[in-house]
Design brief:
This protein has one domain: MoaB/Mog-like domain (Molybdenum Cofactor Biosythetic Enzyme, Chain A, 3-Layer(aba) Sandwich). A six-stranded mixed beta sheet has the order 2-1-3-6-5-4, with helices on both faces. It contains seven helices and six strands; from the N terminus they run βααβαβαβαββαα. Helix 2 (about 20-30) packs parallel to helix 6, helix 3 (about 50-60) crosses helix 4 and helix 5 (about 95-105) crosses helix 6 (about 135-145). The two termini are about 25 Å apart. It has about 170 residues and is of the alpha/beta class. The structure holds adenosine-5'-triphosphate and the ligand Nc1nc2c(c(=O)[nH]1)N[C@H]1C(S)=C(S)[C@@H](COP(=O)(O)O)O[C@H]1N2. Pathway: Cofactor biosynthesis; molybdopterin biosynthesis. GO terms for molecular function: ATP binding; molybdopterin adenylyltransferase activity. Catalyzes the adenylation of molybdopterin as part of the biosynthesis of the molybdenum-cofactor. It comes from Frigoriglobus tundricola.
Length: about 170
Amino acid sequence: MRIGILTVSDRASRGVYEDKGGPAIRACLAEFLSCEWEPHALVIPDEQDQIEATLKAMCDDEGCCLVVTTGGTGPAKRDVTPEATEAVCEKMLPGFGELMRAVSLQSVPTAILSRQTAGIRGESLIVNLPGKPAAIRECLLAVMPAIPYCIDLIGGPVLTTNEEVVKAFRPKQ
Ligand SMILES: Nc1ncnc2c1ncn2[C@@H]1O[C@H](COP(=O)(O)OP(=O)(O)OP(=O)(O)O)[C@@H](O)[C@H]1O
Ligand SMILES: Nc1nc2c(c(=O)[nH]1)N[C@H]1C(S)=C(S)[C@@H](COP(=O)(O)O)O[C@H]1N2
């Protein structure tokens, strides 16, 4: 099972600062998931064409059932991760962004500045997180209970979680 981890940051991609977002996503997934998985991590600048191409490659060529992005979700001119996500997805899942903003609002009033979203491309789920490394655990923890069932519904592999940290919710069928 492969999971894409995509850092979208002009400065981290140029080496101006060390990328803390990608490793934070990887650490959270290692904490939350009990199944075997393999990360496919990249750091790229805030360029819409490059973000779209990378998301497509992670979903279609690398076979990632889940792609988690960090950065580029705000209102600044170069923030285009949600646009790139929407451009490559067949279906959007606005509930992810709504929940993550609601949870983040308990820590920072600027949570409403993030346009973070999620969507489906083929058999892959793409989820956006804000760029601040501190946002990663609280946002991913909030949406993680719904991610395994979402991936079931789109024909992806069965994800299992460490139930003492986060319990996957699968409605009885
Ligand atoms: N990948 C990252 N690794 C470490 N710190 C980050 C990362 N992304 C963002 N940050 C921190 O969060 C702050 C706000 O992030 P934001 O995404 O708004 O950056 P930005 O102004 O868009 O610039 P850039 O695209 O160059 O990261 C940054 O100034 C930086 O301190
Ligand atoms: N949990 C959490 N959410 C957060 C933040 C944060 O520090 N913690 N920062 C906010 C801020 S200041 C901005 S501008 C937006 C967009 O950030 P991005 O452009 O780095 O994705 O995310 C918001 N969401």
